[in-house]
Amino acid sequence: MLEVAGLQVHYGGIAAVKGIDLHVAAGEKVALIGANGAGKTSTLKAIARMLPARGSVKLQGEDIAHAAPHALVRRGLALVPEGRGVFARLSVLENLEMGAYSRTDRAQILADIERVFALLPRLKERATQTAGTLSGGEQQMVAIGRALMSRPRILLLDEPSMGLSPIMVDTVFDVIREVAREGVTLLLVEQNARLALSLCDRGYVMDSGRVTLEAPSAALLDNPAVRAAYLGE
Amino acid sequence: MDIFIQQIINGLVLGSIYALVALGYTMVYGILGLINFAHGEVVMIGALTALTAIGLLLPAGLPGPMLVLAGLLIAIPVCMAVGFTVERIAYRPLRHAPRLAPLITAIGVSIVLQQLAMIGWGRNYHTFPALLPTAPHQFAGAAITDLQIIIVLTAAVLMAGLVWLVNRTRLGRAMRATAENPAVARLMGVDVDRVISFTFVLGSALAAVAGVMVAANYSIAHYAMGFMLGLKAFTAAVLGGIGNLGGAMLGGLLLGIIESLAAGYIGDLTGGFLGSHYKDVFAFFVLILVLVFRPSGLMGEKVAERA
Ligand SMILES: Nc1ncnc2c1ncn2[C@@H]1O[C@H](COP(=O)(O)OP(=O)(O)OP(=O)(O)O)[C@@H](O)[C@H]1O
Ligand SMILES: [Mg+2]
């Protein structure tokens, strides 16, 4: 589904991502974990063409490293950005409509809005409220619901647990699990490594712009180095 | 004749024109954080283009209103093209430059357009032919002409259409999303460059209409007419809260009314010391007051400094 090779991101002269390789197979759930500043967000942004980057990125076998950023959503890629990035002055419903911006099948869009409301009932109650007035957890739901509105084949999530209460984190992760069950491929960035690895099949560990480990989730959860560095043991 | 009512009517007419121009400033500011100082020049180009077109069509013997309409229909696409081109060649390359660069560029574009207009249309004042009925109707002790009614109604219809476009259509939603967060809008599939182009084109179309209105209302057009008009409309946008559509409309109308009332009463108030030609002072007095006491404008949110 997604193949990244030799990806590099620089901010001015500073290298944030120093040539990483990763791949996500169709239907797979993959975690990308690492400490603050490891380069996780930069990696996702580079894949989604929000940042200039070097290296190759292939989506379903096609090179997208030079595609127009706004064309990616039509190819099945959606990103739930770090900090959610909801349109605060648009209503919840309008945020969802924005998620479906690349589509024209009106009837299907309306049906998908109902599906998102079924998955995230809280959003239905808040449909006409501006997104900026919602709580952090609700905004995260808007961001996820909005991403689903494009009917993505692969969903990139950047720290969906950030700043949420434990209960809200559980709710959001249940939703992500449900989305994966419906067949959406996942690349999940998290600082909360235990949470991410418990959901995903496989994980990459990133440190200072490099991938230092890659293994099935169970193996990473057992790895003493990972336990010491990322699981707080 | 009731001076107060008369000046309110005059103010509404003038304010409608300010509002149409202010919308162009505010839409561009909302999306790019840029004050497009060249916008007043687009108004001027609209007025002079219509004037030239009408001059060429005059021998065809069309009825007056048809001629004005024809002039308008030619001025609109010309202004749209000017707005599109200016954004494309002057502002787009500076999209990621520090804020000062596009601001200074905007002033430069304004000067360039004005000079080009001077070369094309000369330094003289051009008389805009009286093609629209200006017979006054009596209204509450004051006079209002058909032309004035047409100006106010046209502006109202255009503004209602704009509000509908921005709030109720897919494109308008994309404009608002882009104004708020272009990077995320792009993730949703919005071609941000096209939305920005569209914003300039739309503002320029309104400017063209405003240009024809001013020229028809004052029967005059001139290569430098955009400067003062642009500054006043900018003031109106700031008064309403720059970046806010409703604010631009309210600010435009208010500024028009304030200015007209000032023009009507300034002589009496100063014992004849200052005449009505000092009315321009009031617009900028308003600007200073707003900037000091309510920099975010009447309807604006907190002015957030964007990076
Ligand atoms: N816009 C920027 N300009 C300069 N440096 C940046 C910028 N964004 C990120 N960086 C730097 O790049 C490195 C990687 O940042 P990135 O945000 O990708 O890390 P991250 O793994 O997502 O961290 P976190 O877990 O805190 O979100 C960091 O050293 C950061 O300081
Ligand atoms: Mg991050």
Describe this structure in a few short sentences.
By secondary structure, chain A is of the alpha/beta class.
Describe the fold and architecture.
The complex is a heterodimer of chains A (233) and B (307). Chain A is 36% helix and 27% strand. Chain A has 9 helices and 10 strands. Chain A has a 6-stranded mixed sheet, with helices on both faces. In chain A, strands 2-1-4-5 form a 4-stranded antiparallel sheet, covered by helices on one side. Chain A is globular, with a radius of gyration of 17 Å. Chain B is 72% helix and 4% strand. In chain B, strand 2 and strand 3 form a beta hairpin. In chain B, 48% of the residues are buried. Chains A and B meet through helix 2 of A and helix 6 and helix 7 of B. The complex binds adenosine-5'-triphosphate and magnesium ion.
Calculate Rg of chain B over CA atoms.
19 Å
Oligomeric state: heterodimer
Which sheet architecture does the biggest sheet of chain B show? 2 strands, antiparallel
Query: How many separate helices of chain A?
Result: 9
Present as ligands are:
adenosine-5'-triphosphate, magnesium ion
Shape of chain A: globular
CATH topology of chain B: ABC transporter involved in vitamin B12 uptake, BtuC
Shape of chain B: globular
Main β-sheet of chain A, in a few words?
Answer: 6 strands, mixed
Cα end-to-end separation of chain A: 34 Å
Structural class of chain A: alpha/beta
The count of β-strands of chain A is 10
* H and E string of chain A: EEEHEEEHHHHEHEHEEHH
Largest interface, chains and sizes: A-B, 25 and 17 residues
Find the count of extended strands of chain B (DSSP E, 2+ residues).
Answer: 4
CATH secondary-structure class of chain B: Mainly Alpha
The spatial strand order of the largest sheet of chain B comes to: 1-4
